[in-house]
Amino acid sequence: MPSPVTASASLVGLLGVSRAAIVDHLHRSGAQPVAALAVHLGISEVATRRHLGVLTEDGLVEEREPRASGGRPAACFALTDRAARLFPQSYDRFANELLDFLTAEHGRDGLLAFLRWRVDREVGALTDAVQGGTLEERVVRLAEALTSAGFVADVVRDDTPNALPTLQLIQHHCVIEGVAREHPEICSYEAAAFSRALGTDVQLSRRETIADGSPACVCTVTAAVG
Question: Which end of the chain is more exposed for a tag (fewer CB within 10 A), N or C?
């Protein structure tokens, strides 16, 4: 009987043995029908479908149309883009090497020019996502856009008496943490992109970042005075 315990310990701890084995197998082998997954796990197809149901509800697995073939092909299951984030990537190293090369070849001015270019691109996309509505509605939509991009963001409102209404945009996860630690300028330029996307009636400051060792990246947002 095949052993399903091929997934990493961290994946098993997060999902449990059987569901971790399904995710690991789909990551290694691509889309698979239920029967093949059941054989790999050494359990029944009914039990396999139960595990797939949980993974589907969690947004980690999706059912895909089978490829056309003779007879009636079985439906297949595959990992979603969200599930791909469960596996280690080498993007940080590549990005750091790219930025180091850019600095070595073009100096710090070259690096800052790239970051300004990146901010302009980010502002365009974020503005489309958050434009219109009250300041709080815009910040909430910005948090939703960041969460969709993997940053797991939410908004906390501070209604301290005799003070300006204050919103905190909190990012609980940073998908570029390794790069930001090596190049902290990225955090400042990212905050600038948020401020520009939210509009000219906004004052935004950031004093806490995951790259600096804080548990979250926190931007304080208030209405601009004057």
Answer: C
Pinpoint the residues of the chain covered by CATH 3.30.1380.
Answer: 91-223
The b/e string for 62-95 (b: 16+ C-beta within 10 A; e otherwise) is: beeeeeeeeeeeeebbebeeebeebeeeeebeeb
What does the pLDDT look like over 102-154, one tens digit per residue? Answer: 999 999 899 889 988 988 888 888 888 898 899 999 999 999 998 888 788 89
First to last CA, the chain: 72
Q: What is the pTM of this model?
A: 0.59
Percent of the chain with pLDDT over 70: 88
Kindly report the CATH class assigned to 9-84: mainly alpha
If one counts every other C-beta atom within 10 angstroms of the C-beta of residue 19, the result is: 23
Cα dihedral value 202, 206, 207, 211, nearest 10:
170
220 neighbors 160 (Cβ within 8 angstroms): no
Q: What's the sign of the alpha-carbon dihedral 124, 137, 192, 219?
A: negative
For CA atoms 75, 77, 78, 81, the dihedral sign is positive
Q: Supply the CATH classification number for the domain 91-223.
A: 3.30.1380
